[in-house]
Specification:
288 residues, mainly alpha, 2 domains, 12 helices, DNA-binding, transcription
Length: 288
DNA sequence: GGCTTAAGGGGATTTACTTCA
DNA sequence: TTTGAAGTAAATCCCCTTAAG
């Protein structure tokens, strides 16, 4: 069979043993035959990319190439068929994956040794690592996108909720202000005050914050009497309206983006940033 | 037909080596 | 003879693309 002929050599022995053995651990990989003990440190190229017959005499850079590597490359001359693309065997992929876990960058010596172990050309190993890095990066980006999207959705939810709360509070302030003016003008309140409650408010009648609770309790009191405690009319300073208090009312349409910006400056742990600094979230999964 | 993946090719960068003033 | 800058070639990377399985 044509396909089996490629791997039908002694170099596959170690690789095929993986079928019946457990995948070597990281340390085993590092300590085992993945590394060339006698390889020359001055080796800078791969057999598949360099024509050694031409270059050896001209460039001293390539004068110390391992002769075993040359023999190994020559073994492919007889049956290497570049026109046919073949998938790597599962065992080969498994071995490469393990090696990738150790280090996703490929040193020349390691490339040659891996090629030897797997019965592949060094160039094939290099290409596999390149493609593998690309796949890794793609998956990483997908993960990061999902994370950012969920954060964005949560932020959007929170901002919408805050916007509603803001509208509700403004409504309450407005009603209280009206009530206060009536008191100042000497017009007694003839009937219990009926605050205008939006459908949204009707759905959620729970307190928003401590400060809003104070205002809410004042308005939503069933008997309509304000909780000014001692009945001192001079307590009106509590709700003394100032022009600055309603500055946001003038540009309600700008309220949303304004909220968005400001809420990032003082985020609470339970808010949309999940308690992490904003600048840190973008790099959660980026360890590439 | 769509998906995965081996492989090709181009551009950028790094590194080792050579040449020359 | 030594030295540093400039030039060159090879290797490798990433990115995009193609095509086989």
């Amino acid at each position: 069979m044509e396909g089996s002929s490629i791997y039908d050599n002694s170099h596959m022995t170690n690789v095929l043993l993986l079928k019946n053995e457990t995948i070597p651990s990281t340390s085993q990989l590092l300590d085992s035959s993945l590394w060339l003990p006698n390889s020359s440190p001055s080796f800078h190229g791969s057999a598949s990319m360099v024509n050694f017959e031409e270059n050896k005499s001209e460039r001293p850079l390539f004068t110390q190439i391992d002769t075993k590597l040359e023999n190994f490359s020559e073994e492919f001359d007889g049956f290497n068929q570049p026109e046919k693309k073949r998938r790597l065997l599962p065992d080969q992929v498994r071995f490469l994956e393990k090696s990738f876990e150790v280090d996703n960058k490929l040193e020349p010596e390691r490339k040659v040794q891996l090629a030897k172990e797997l019965g592949l050309q060094p160039r094939q190993v290099a290409i596999w690592f390149q493609n593998r890095r690309a796949r890794y990066k793609t998956r990483l980006l997908e993960k990061e996108y999902d994370s950012l999207k969920s954060s964005y959705d949560k932020l959007k939810e929170d901002c919408a909720s805050l916007f509603k709360d803001n509208e509700k509070l403004k409504n309450e302030v407005h009603l209280l202000n009206e009530k206060l003016l009536m008191r100042k003008n000497g017009n007694p309140i003839s009937k219990p005050f009926e605050p205008i409650i939006s459908p949204l408010d009707a759905q959620s009648k729970k307190p928003i914050s401590s400060s809003s609770n104070a205002a809410k309790s004042d308005v939503s009191d069933p008997d309509g009497s304000p909780n000014y405690t001692d009945g001192n009319d001079d307590s009106s300073h509590v709700f003394e309206p100032e022009a600055s208090d309603f500055s946001q009312d003038e540009d309600d349409s700008l309220c949303f983006p304004k909220l968005e910006v400001e809420c990032c400056d003082d985020l609470q742990p339970n808010s949309c940033n999940l308690g992490f600094p904003v600048q840190d979230q973008g790099t959660w999964f980026w360890q590439y």
